[in-house]
TrEMBL record:
UniProt cross-references to SUPFAM superfamilies, sorted A to Z: PIN domain-like
Domain of life from the UniProt record: Bacteria
Protein name listed in UniProt: PIN domain-containing protein
UniProt xrefs under InterPro entries: PIN-like_dom_sf
Length: 64
């Protein structure tokens, strides 16, 4: 069982896919979750927010 638990929001998980200034910390959190050192909880609407983030980031990239 994990020693610590965190509530993870869209910005943390989004940093796993889109590099920004929070990516190094988000990647360490992802690795700890994968290793079973940390338990992750997230809001029910996280998948909708993540889909929205990725869609709009893609649109922004296409418009540049």
């Amino acid at each position: 069982m994990a020693d610590k638990s965190y509530v993870v929001d869209t910005s943390a998980i989004g940093a796993w896919f889109i590099q920004d200034e929070f990516s190094p910390g988000a990647e360490r959190l992802r690795d700890a979750i994968s290793a079973g050192q940390v338990q992750m909880y997230c809001p029910d609407f996280l998948l909708l927010e993540l889909a929205n983030l990725l869609i709009f980031k893609r649109i922004d990239r296409l418009n540049v």
